[in-house]
């Protein structure tokens, strides 16, 4: 199948206000030429936002005197982009953003021949809260009422939010199990991204949606949706909703870690060069603004530490999707 590259563009300077003295030499001569950052999802989504935030921070806060381009290759829970990225062996100038649970779900569900263990872990960067939402006209005023309806008539509540086997569906699966509902009875409509999910919800084709607060923010701020719960440790600023922890449901949320991978075949020195570059990026005011704007919390897990998280979550995701009848 021929893969169509949907978006390839140089990142313009979009973030401003760097503190004095943030210009830094990446050291060791890296990077000495342009970087390519793949976002294996659609423009405007979480992966795209992260990729462009990294690229913008590199230039705006003068971390490196090289250009960076962001390429979008969406589809199949990130595995179309993953297959393309895996061919870039040995090249430390090729990077890919992702988040652990979404991409692992895509790998398991789509039986991808490429696994994350074959790539080079660079770093886990952040975690971002997700929210369970309904429309402002929905009869469900809180999460308990929505779950009561699902318990009474599982197929009657239509959920949406992300790809098949992604964190949204896995969170719904946990909520169903908590109510004694067989996970195979869940009525979940997968989508390619937040925009499609919102179209389904706002048109009445879906009852509820699960997506990141960052992607839902326009609809939340416009009052188009009602937030029933968020899966963060603390309440999210300017979002009037309890946490799943407050509701006694913290264990049902699937925590995903967003980060960066490099291709296979890098030497230890090359891996450390890329880690060092990302470490400088995360310390800039530019990147801190990206975190704040998207309600992301920093969770720095460099190198093999990130690889360990991915391996552990691979087991967790495989088990959950097995219960959903996926990935077999």
Summarize the entry for a quick read:
The protein has 328 residues and is an alpha/beta fold. It has helices at residues 46-60, 79-85, 100-109, 143-152, 167-178, 194-203, 213-221, 268-282, 285-293, 304-323, and strands at 7-10, 35-39, 68-72, 94-99, 120-127, 130-135, 158-160, 187-189, 208-212, 225-230, 258-262, 297-302.
Walk me through this protein's architecture.
The protein is α/β, with parallel strands linked by helices and 328 residues long. The protein has two domains: 188 residues, Bordetella uptake gene, domain 1 (D-Maltodextrin-Binding Protein, domain 2, 3-Layer(aba) Sandwich), CATH 3.40.190; 123 residues, Periplasmic binding protein-like II (D-Maltodextrin-Binding Protein, domain 2, 3-Layer(aba) Sandwich). The protein contains ten helices and twelve strands. The protein has a seven-stranded mixed beta sheet with strand order 1-3-2-4-11-5-12, sandwiched between helices. It has a five-stranded mixed beta sheet with strand order 8-7-9-6-10, sandwiched between helices. Helix 1 links the parallel strand 2 and strand 3. Helix 1 packs antiparallel against helix 9 and helix 3 packs across helix 10. The N terminus is likely disordered.
Tell me which CATH architecture of the largest domain applies here.
3-Layer(aba) Sandwich
Which CATH class of the largest domain is shown? Answer: Alpha Beta
Classify the helix fraction into a percent range.
25-40%
**What is the ordering of alpha helices and beta strands?**
EEHEHEHEEHEHEHEHEEHHEH
Query: How would a crystallographer describe the biggest sheet?
Result: 7 strands, mixed
Query: What is the average per-residue confidence, as pLDDT, rounded to a whole number?
Result: 89
């Amino acid at each position: 199948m021929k893969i169509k590259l949907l978006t390839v563009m140089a990142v313009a300077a979009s973030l401003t206000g760097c503190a004095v003295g943030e210009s830094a030499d990446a050291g060791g001569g890296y990077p000495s030429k342009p970087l390519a950052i793949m976002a294996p999802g659609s423009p405007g989504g979480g992966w795209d936002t992260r990729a462009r935030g990294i690229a913008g921070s590199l230039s705006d806060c003068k971390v490196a005197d090289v250009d960076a381009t962001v390429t979008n290759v969406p589809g199949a829970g990130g595995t179309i982009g993953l297959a393309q990225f895996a061919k870039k062996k040995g090249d430390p100038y090729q990077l890919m953003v992702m988040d652990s649970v979404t991409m692992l779900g895509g790998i398991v569900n789509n039986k991808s021949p490429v696994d994350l263990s074959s790539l080079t872990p660079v770093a886990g960067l952040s975690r971002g809260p997700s929210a369970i939402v309904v429309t402002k006209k929905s009869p469900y005023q809180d999460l308990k009422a929505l779950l009561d309806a699902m318990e009474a008539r599982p197929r009657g509540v239509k959920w949406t939010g992300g790809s098949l086997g992604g964190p949204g569906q896995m969170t719904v699966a946990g909520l169903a199990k908590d109510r004694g509902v067989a996970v195979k009875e869940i009525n979940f409509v997968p989508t390619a991204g937040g925009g499609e999910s919102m179209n389904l919800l706002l048109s009445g084709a879906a009852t509820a949606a699960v997506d990141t607060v960052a992607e839902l923010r326009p609809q939340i701020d416009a009052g188009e949706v009602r937030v029933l719960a968020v899966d963060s440790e603390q309440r999210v600023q300017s979002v009037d909703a309890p946490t799943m922890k407050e509701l006694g449901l913290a264990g049902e949320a699937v925590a995903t870690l967003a980060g960066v991978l490099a291709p296979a075949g890098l030497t230890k020195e090359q891996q450390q060069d890329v880690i060092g570059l990302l470490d400088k990026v995360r310390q800039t005011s530019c990147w801190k603004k990206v975190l704040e704007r998207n309600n992301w919390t920093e969770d720095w897990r460099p190198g093999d530490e990130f690889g360990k998280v991915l391996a552990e979550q691979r087991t967790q995701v495989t088990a959950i999707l097995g219960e959903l009848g996926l990935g077999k």
